[in-house]
Design brief:
Elements lengths: L1 E2 L5 H10 L8 E3 L4 H7 L3 E3 L8 H8 L4 E3 L5 H4 L7 E2 L5 H13 L1 H18 L2 H19 L6 E3 L6 E3 L8 H11 L6 H10 L5
Parallel strand pairs: 1-2, 3-4, 4-5
Antiparallel strand pairs: 6-7
Length: about 200
């Protein structure tokens, strides 16, 4: 099943016909009931060669759909192989087909991985979570704009996170802090908000 519209649609249709798969591949076009379709899918295959943080993947994970991905762009941080989905080299058709075969032959394992992925998305990528995280990140960016020598140390996170001056091109400390927000091990949202308030992020 291929959902959506785009400039490559006719080329894909021609390829399906030439491959003798007209009765096996279905083009649904633009749909408004995508959430329902995700829930009916056996697996979502996202094997683009270039990606940022694909919304289609986040939506499928939130709907509890098993996923097969190519680890490019933000997908590397989103899916843990053999835990939350299947990671393949998207340019290798045989590897992708073997991953699809595994999903179909092991539905219980597919559901387990899909459930873990769903929990991650709902915890770390909900609308409120992303909004709050960007507010905190924006506040820390304001702090680091004036940090030169020495850099700002923020030790209340349980690990020594260093917020480097953005003007010198270093993003390592900032990314570490952002990851602490998005992937907390033991902290709830209220505690993370308290941490931000302690540093006057919102003020």
């Amino acid at each position: 099943v291929i959902i959506g519209e785009g400039p490559e649609k006719n080329r894909y249709r021609d390829q399906v016909v030439k491959s003798g798969l007209k009765d096996r591949v279905h083009f649904l076009g633009y749909r408004r009931d995508v959430l329902m379709l995700y829930r009916d899918l056996d697996v979502l295959v996202q094997v683009s060669r270039f990606e940022g943080m694909p919304m289609v993947l986040l939506e499928a994970m939130a709907a509890g759909c098993p996923v097969i991905v190519n680890p490019v762009g933000g997908i590397r941080d989103l899916i843990v192989d053999e835990q939350e989905g299947w990671i393949t080299r998207g340019q290798n058709p045989r590897e992708v087909s073997l991953a699809i075969k595994k999903v179909l032959e092991h539905p219980l394992e597919a559901r387990k991985r899909a459930s873990r992925a769903q929990k991650k998305v709902l915890c770390c990528y909900s609308e409120n979570q992303v909004f709050d995280s960007w507010r905190m990140l924006n506040g820390w960016w304001k702090l680091t704009k004036t940090a030169h020598n020495p850099p700002v140390h923020m030790n209340n996170f349980g690990s020594n996170i260093v917020m480097y001056d953005l003007n010198d091109g270093s993003m390592k400390g900032l990314r570490q802090a952002f990851n602490q927000l998005l992937f907390p091990k033991k902290r709830g949202m209220s505690e993370r908000l308290k941490m931000a308030q302690d540093y006057d992020v919102f003020g």
